[in-house]
Here is the input.
Amino acid sequence: MLDCNNEHIKNSILLEFAKTVELFDLSPLEARLFAFLYIEGVPLTLDQMSEALGKSKTSMSTGVRSLVDLNLVKRVWKKGVRKDLFQANEQLFKQFMSFYMKKWIVATEDRKEALLELQSELEQSALDQSNEHIHNKLNDLLDFHNKLDVFFKEASKNK
Amino acid sequence: MLDCNNEHIKNSILLEFAKTVELFDLSPLEARLFAFLYIEGVPLTLDQMSEALGKSKTSMSTGVRSLVDLNLVKRVWKKGVRKDLFQANEQLFKQFMSFYMKKWIVATEDRKEALLELQSELEQSALDQSNEHIHNKLNDLLDFHNKLDVFFKEASKNK
DNA sequence: TTTTTTGTACAGTTTAAACTGTACACATTA
DNA sequence: TAATGTGTACAGTTTAAACTGTACAAAAAA
Here is the structure.
């Protein structure tokens, strides 16, 4: 009876936490998967995840791989256990911020580069001042991307 | 010939900029729509947007409405013109950061509240220490949400 | 070696999101 | 008043994402 109640609360916590994880651009499944691994705390197998979340093992395999790529989950070894074991990284704020800020920085740098390339193309074809408007807009866009870049680089310093 | 080339560059700029806008959780259409309005600079009608992007007027209507809700686009009036006119807000960094930080703050506050509610439920049903594990995890989650809250509130100060 | 176990590639299916077209309400003009 | 123009609600369609099940490759056990 008490256990039942606690299981219910535990599940509610998982659902709420998963909503937060989704904010970091993780899919609903990845979010629930991470939340589950984090709350359980101990290394778990694909079958255990599949059983607990009621989803296919394939989904667990691809989902947990994404989480490992993002450095949110790590694979662990235990002697005598043949199955792969996965465990959630416990440093929530550090890890989530780390990959999220990096994502923004990489994205804005890529855009900036592409826009600079377009700017030089524009300069070359600009024999008259007929395109002053687009020229100015492009400068404003570059300014915007610079500000984004600075902002997220600054933000990632605050851990 | 030159015009043609400039149109091509203009369109490339639009596409690149739209990619950045998508990072703020706007749909591809909303992103392209905003990019178009921003680059054109002048107030435009739904028909003009529809024509330029090659999408239905209904899409423009719903899309531009979202953009207005996010304060990225404003409706403007011009005497003699019956159709609705919409213009992009020019302060890119200020406006995008503003709604994005707010979105994070609201979301984390909501989760925090939900988790606090679950915490009090957990306390009530905790007659023994059997649930110390989940109790600790919940505290860690609340700590995480607090850090997120502080981070984004601090970040939104830096405009 | 053969047999068993485990993770994942891939094709197919289900589910959700994006988008369209018609129909209509509301407003403006005549 | 009627006639025309304009935005959007809504239902339906298309498109993309999420998810599943089988089948197989790699590795371990027998």
